[in-house]
């Protein structure tokens, strides 16, 4: 058996085209959605992400505001910038690129963002809303994974889902989204016992551990849908958390790296910015 490859690049392009059409409609009402991205320091990977976020924001017709600050920016100055963006009616979405340089209080910074402009869905109010089934801003990477899963599987009700990774950015919100769609969800992590055996019970396996080629084909239930969230830079180039060659022999479907979840994350960021704009206007 050879798994179907889930084409995140194509799905994300279709999503961005739909977003661009909405943005064009808003323009006739004099509304331009605006996304502000704040980057502290010179981390090369973060710089690449922020550049492509800016480019894709402009491509769908939204306004992009980039704020690049030195790594030693004091917390007060960062909070003052966030307060200014919160008050700016041209800014509908605010994203502070993580991780922050050492010395800054990540929770305080995230929770200073107005919840209705929190397009990352990391504010404690949005986390709580998602967990309690209220209308929330949903984190972009898990939202992108959910869209691919729904597109591929239809209903997720009753399926066994295993999420490897318990981060606030991916693992925990991914589990909440799968639960909201009535999957039976297990969150696995570095202390989970007999992880391969647990994974073999999964109809849906989401790998978000940040370890290259961590999940191998013998961990995968035949026919399972495998979502690879990993983006690991290795000497062999960019690889996921799933060992592609062995996974392809067993899985029913697999998201590739690159070209799977990655492009969905930015498309979902634009979708969240559009949602924030729609809520702000009405
Ligand atoms: N760093 C890695 N992923 C993300 C993300 O989704 N949002 C932000 N703000 N920073 C990140």
TrEMBL record:
Subunit (UniProt): Homodimer.
EC annotation from Swiss-Prot or TrEMBL: 1.5.1.5, 3.5.4.9
Q: Name one GO molecular function term.
A: methylenetetrahydrofolate dehydrogenase (NADP+) activity
Question: SUPFAM superfamilies in the record, alphabetically?
Answer: Aminoacid dehydrogenase-like, N-terminal domain (SSF53223), NAD(P)-binding Rossmann-fold domains (SSF51735)
Q: Which UniProt keywords apply?
A: Amino-acid biosynthesis, Histidine biosynthesis, Hydrolase, Methionine biosynthesis, Multifunctional enzyme, NADP, One-carbon metabolism, Oxidoreductase, Purine biosynthesis
Pathway given in the UniProt record: One-carbon metabolism; tetrahydrofolate interconversion
Query: Catalysed reaction(s)?
Result: (6R)-5,10-methylene-5,6,7,8-tetrahydrofolate + NADP(+) = (6R)-5,10-methenyltetrahydrofolate + NADPH; (6R)-5,10-methenyltetrahydrofolate + H2O = (6R)-10-formyltetrahydrofolate + H(+)
What the entry lists under Pfam families is as follows: THF_DHG_CYH, THF_DHG_CYH_C
Query: What GO biological process terms does the UniProt entry carry, in alphabetical order?
Result: L-histidine biosynthetic process; methionine biosynthetic process; purine nucleotide biosynthetic process; tetrahydrofolate interconversion
Q: Which GO terms describe its cellular component?
A: cytosol
What family is this protein classified in? Belongs to the tetrahydrofolate dehydrogenase/cyclohydrolase family.
Identify the taxonomic lineage of the organism of origin.
Bacteria, Pseudomonadati, Pseudomonadota, Alphaproteobacteria, Rhodobacterales
Put simply, this protein is called Bifunctional protein FolD
Q: Where does NADP(+) bind?
A: 165-167, 231
The residue ranges of the Tetrahydrofolate dehydrogenase/cyclohydrolase NAD(P)-binding domain are 139-279
Please tell me the species this chain comes from: Paracoccus gahaiensis
Indicate whether Hydrolase appears among the record's keywords.
Answer: yes
Q: Which domain of life is it from?
A: Bacteria
* Gene encoding the protein: folD
Q: Which residues form the Tetrahydrofolate dehydrogenase/cyclohydrolase catalytic domain?
A: 6-120
* Keyword Metal-binding in annotation: no
Protein function: Catalyzes the oxidation of 5,10-methylenetetrahydrofolate to 5,10-methenyltetrahydrofolate and then the hydrolysis of 5,10-methenyltetrahydrofolate to 10-formyltetrahydrofolate.
Query: InterPro entries from the xrefs?
Result: Aminoacid_DH-like_N_sf, NAD(P)-bd_dom_sf, THF_DH/CycHdrlase, THF_DH/CycHdrlase_cat_dom, THF_DH/CycHdrlase_CS, THF_DH/CycHdrlase_NAD-bd_dom
């Amino acid at each position: 058996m050879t798994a179907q490859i889930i084409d995140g690049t194509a799905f994300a392009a279709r999503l961005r085209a739909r977003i661009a059409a909405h943005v064009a409609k808003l323009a006739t009402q004099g509304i331009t959605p605006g996304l502000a991205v704040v980057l502290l320091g010179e981390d090369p990977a973060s710089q690449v992400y922020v550049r492509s976020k800016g480019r894709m924001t402009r491509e769908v017709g939204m306004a992009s505001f980039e704020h690049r600050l030195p790594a030693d920016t004091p917390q007060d100055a960062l909070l003052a910038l966030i307060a200014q963006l919160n008050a700016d009616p041209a800014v509908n979405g605010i994203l502070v690129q993580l991780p922050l340089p050492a010395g800054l209080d990540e929770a305080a910074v995230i929770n200073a963002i107005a919840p209705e402009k929190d397009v990352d869905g990391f504010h404690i109010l949005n986390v709580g809303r998602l967990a309690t089934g209220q209308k929330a801003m949903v984190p972009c990477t898990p939202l992108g994974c959910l869209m691919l899963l729904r597109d591929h599987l239809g209903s997720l009700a009753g399926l066994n889902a295993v999420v490897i990774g318990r981060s606030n950015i991916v693992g925990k919100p991914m589990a909440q989204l799968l639960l909201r769609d009535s999957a039976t969800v297990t969150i696995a992590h570095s202390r989970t016992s007999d992880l391969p055996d647990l994974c073999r019970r999964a109809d849906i396996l989401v790998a978000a551990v940040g370890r290259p080629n961590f999940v191998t084909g013998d961990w995968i239930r035949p026919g399972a849908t495998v979502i690879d969230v990993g983006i690991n830079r290795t000497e062999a180039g960019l690889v996921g958390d799933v060992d592609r060659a062995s996974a392809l022999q067993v899985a029913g479907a697999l998201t590739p790296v690159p070209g799977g979840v990655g492009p969905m994350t930015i498309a979902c960021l634009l979708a969240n910015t559009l949602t924030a704009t729609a809520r702000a206007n009405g």
